[in-house]
Design goal:
Blueprint (H helix, E strand, L loop, with lengths): L1 H13 L6 H14 L2 H14 L7 H12 L4 E9 L5 E8 L7 E9 L5 E7 L1
Antiparallel strand pairs: 1-2, 2-3, 3-4
Helix pairs in contact: 2-3
């Protein structure tokens, strides 16, 4: 009974945020490992939404890469380097779950008509 009261209190008063950094990082790493854009896209989109500005520019792309770097992953990027319409940028994310094998994916970031950054794709 006490456990139930504590759980309900947590939900009612503290919100029990399931979108903690730890949970987001786990989803990001799981999605990268499984090549599952359905797990990666919400994390990247959430991190974009948390930026002080979501305008598609080099500084904000770097800020996004830094935010993803909080998940103990290595990020490299190129801004506006994919000459498509609209153009795209790449963030290269890699990490080693076991200290031996390195898993690497490229996350493509593009922009909408309002010049707001958005997740576009993930690939090898």
């Amino acid at each position: 009974m006490l456990r139930l009261v504590m759980i309900l209190s947590c939900i009612a008063f503290l919100g029990c945020d399931k979108n903690t950094l730890e949970n987001r990082c786990a989803r990001l790493k799981d999605g990268i490992t499984a090549n599952d854009m359905g797990k990666v896209e919400p994390v990247v989109s959430y991190e974009i939404s948390r930026l002080s500005s979501r305008t598609y520019n080099q500084a904000n792309l770097q800020a996004l890469a830094n935010a993803l770097g909080n998940c103990s992953v290595t990020t490299q990027l190129c801004f506006d380097c994919i000459k498509t319409l609209p153009s795209q940028s790449e963030i290269i994310v890699s990490y080693s779950p076991d200290g031996i094998i390195v898993i690497r994916k490229v996350i493509d970031i593009s922009y909408d008509a309002g010049n707001t950054m958005r997740f576009h794709n993930m690939h090898d």
